[in-house]
Amino acid sequence: MAATNPWLLPFFLLLAAAYSDQLPPSSAQFPFPETTSTAVPDPTKFFSPSLLSSPLPTNSFFQNFVLNKGDLPEYIHPYLIRTANSSLSVSYPSRTSNTSITQLPFSPDLTISSVSNKTHFVSSFSDLAVDLDIGEFRFHLVRGSPYLTFSVLKTSSVSISTGGNGVDSVDSYDGSTKHIIRLSNGRNWVVYSTAAIYLMKAKSSEIVTSGGFSGVIRVAVLPNSAAETEQILDRYSGCYPVSGYAKLSGNFGFSYKWQKKGSGGLLMLAHPLHRRVLPENLTVLQNFKYGSIDGDLVGVVGDSWDLNFAPIPITWHSINGIERKFFPEIVAALKHDVGTLNVTELSSTAASYFYGKLLARAARLALIAEEVDYAAGVIPAVVKFLKTGIQPWLDGKFGRNGFLYDRKWAGLVTKNGATSKTEDFGFGIYNDHHFHLGYFVYSIAVLAKLDRNWGNQYKAPAYALVHDYMNYRSRNTQFSIPFRNFDFWKLHSWAAGLTEFPDGRNQESTSEAINAYYAAALMGLAYGDESLTAVGSALTAAEIAAAQTWWHVNRGGRSSIYDEGFTEENRVVGILWSGARESRLWFASAEWRECRVGIQVLPVVPVTERVFADEGFVKEVVEWVSPALEREDAGEGWKGFVYALEGIYDKKNAVGKVKKLKKHDDGNSLSNLLWWIYSRPERQG
Ligand SMILES: *[C@@H]1O[C@H](CO)[C@@H](O)[C@H](O)[C@H]1NC(C)=O
Ligand SMILES: *[C@@H]1O[C@H](CO)[C@@H](O)[C@H](O)[C@H]1NC(C)=O
Ligand SMILES: *[C@@H]1O[C@H](CO)[C@@H](O)[C@H](O)[C@H]1NC(C)=O
Ligand SMILES: *[C@@H]1O[C@H](CO)[C@@H](O)[C@H](O)[C@H]1NC(C)=O
Ligand SMILES: *[C@@H]1O[C@H](CO)[C@@H](O)[C@H](O)[C@H]1NC(C)=O
């Protein structure tokens, strides 16, 4: 989604019209001072020079291609792609799985080599695609394309090697514009070319063109032996995508539009979440299927898709309200919790993540108080605490840390993260931005709601925080890449940042990602900015649906996505990678199930209700995690989140347990847990 995105413009202009008085006019006025980070890598090697003047992606589906040596694979469904040493390898991976990990091992089927001996670089990118240039080849890596497509820009020979796999045969069809390569590993690949190409077996594991070629070559694995599969690939081989853009189309809708070349219809693949939100009138080829770690991918014909999520309510307060009989208990807890707000604790907390959580915890107390008749006048104390806590970060006057601007990758970093890859959990290398900033934005939204004047005074830095992770503007995008964390094809976010990983990007906490977009939507409410609310709401809905599809391992429901052993052992995924699923966490082993559940629940806010809407599944999760709570080292804070889930179907038991807790998570409180449980809708029957 670079500046060269003509298709998005009308939508963005529409937004900008409602919003123009809030646009910072130039980068010189970015509200945080610039720093020269020593923690970030140098982006210049793997991007075309023309891309370097605009913000670069830091959490994208092709990040491995532009970090360090750029030679780790990325998952461009349905293929793993790796580029190194002037060549590009494609693998149609076979999933391996046991009870603790599901993974796509990279084992190249075909390696396409350039004679140029040039390093690859990104020549353009869009929401759904990236162009990778290697010498005379331009690979159009488009997510969900069953074909790997590349243009040979200058006449040259093409050499395809098959690594450890022998070539059984190379057969030629249709005037040598179609070939089938049969490998000794049993894989059969079809090669289509826009002109005759004379592919010949040169050595046991090498295929070469006998003469020069220029034009377009498309390569696809035959995922099964059905004649129909090959016929479908034949039929749609003439039309290829070169880029793809996503836009938000209002009212929880997303649209994809691919720019295509050639002739005929465009054949793409849809993953299980796509299929839930695609309209029924789209042509779906049910029998045309590829395997993936995200579930079966099926063929869809069309160069634009509309995806429609069910609307979710974005509210400050609980969605269903609380019965008055519960007010006194909540009021008592609020008085106590507000009394313990501790400015000294806050100002001695340097880490942006923990600081943000302390703020958001306090902000919740004010909103809960509003809901129980403005309980006992506690709100002014919360407002005072929030101002004291938030202002130093927005004014740049917090001695222990602060927000700064990194021009190299165009985004916010923390002062402590600007000299360290590990401080603030890697915030300085663009890890976890939406998590940390989500807590700040939540707190700012609440404070701006409670004190309009304060909100107006701090509007510019407040918006800068949102724009860092959810930049949806057409103009002045030089501050930060649009939608830093959100992946429009997977329809959820990645945390990860600028570190190369063998399995691609990852995200652990879906609930903190949901909170980030929910917080942005609330900030839109606080400032009367409908565009901001619309964008935040749509991303909240998508992130929730993706969490339910891929993180929540729901045996009973729609989820037959993972293999049996993994599904039996896990009710939630720990770390979800682009190319792997793990039951461990970054900070805990797989056995610490209370952490694994908690990190998918926190922070408990009104929209949490929509994340855990399936009561049958919630019960399964609680039963699955309960034995872990018996461990002596199981933390009280984590237990609180499990009881919050139990409260969805058993208020009485859950309240009893919550009241016995000796401590709460640093972002949680007794008030918040009581508010949550007492606001659960009464069960029918
Ligand atoms: C690239 O070449 C170097 C040097 O020959 C080699 O060590 C490395 O393994 C190669 N990388 C890949 C991915 O083939
Ligand atoms: C699962 O596979 C991974 C990777 O192959 C291995 O490290 C791990 O020990 C296996 N776990 C179990 C429980 O078998
Ligand atoms: C290819 O380039 C690398 C480094 O740029 C160099 O070390 C190597 O000798 C070159 N190989 C050939 C065949 O030119
Ligand atoms: C599918 O239906 C929508 C309205 O529901 C319509 O806008 C769209 O044009 C239809 N698409 C096709 C391919 O018929
Ligand atoms: C406030 O926090 C500081 C630093 O964590 C701590 O030393 C102090 O005891 C706390 N004050 C109260 C009243 O709890």
Q: Tell me the radius of gyration.
A: 26 Å
Class based on secondary structure composition and strand pairing = alpha+beta
- Poorly predicted residue ranges: 1-28
For the largest beta-sheet, the strand count, sense and barrel status come to: 8 strands, antiparallel
Strand arrangement in the largest pleated sheet: 8-9-10-11-18-15-14-13
Shape assignment:
globular
Within the CATH hierarchy, at the fold level, what is the topology of the largest domain?
Glycosyltransferase
Bound molecules: 2-acetamido-2-deoxy-beta-D-glucopyranose
DSSP strand tally: 31
Q: What is the name of the CATH class of the largest domain? A: Mainly Alpha
How many helices does DSSP assign? 19
Share in helix: 25-40%
What percentage of the residues does DSSP assign to strands (E)? 15-25%
CATH architecture of the largest domain: Alpha/alpha barrel
Distance between the termini: 50 Å
Q: What number is the mean pLDDT?
A: 93
- Identify the quaternary structure here: single chain
How many distinct folded domains?
Answer: 2
Family: Belongs to the glycosyl hydrolase 81 family.
Domain Glycosyl hydrolase family 81 N-terminal: 52-315
Pfam families: Glyco_hydro81C (PF17652), Glyco_hydro_81 (PF03639)
Protein name: glucan endo-1,3-beta-D-glucosidase
